[in-house]
Write a structure and sequence with these properties.
about 55% strand
Length: about 100
Amino acid sequence: MEDKKVNKIVTNQNIVIENREKISISGVIDIHSFDDELVLAQTDLGILTIKGDDLKMNKLNLENNELIVEGKIMAVAYSDISSSKKNGFMNKLFK
């Protein structure tokens, strides 16, 4: 038999921000991009954007769908999965 790896589907998601210096997120499926000023994470509830300064990925565990980022957190925002596909760069380019 072949073993298949199945990601857990999280029905609720937790985001904990500690003193604007550390953010812990559950329900993370993948990381689209990461640098010291911007993190784009695919979650069960959409694309999560974290903006800040000196951001460092402290923990990434995709088996448990967990992400911890440390640094100076300036903003956290969701983008809907369907709207991010509709409003993507290539779609704007060819309108």
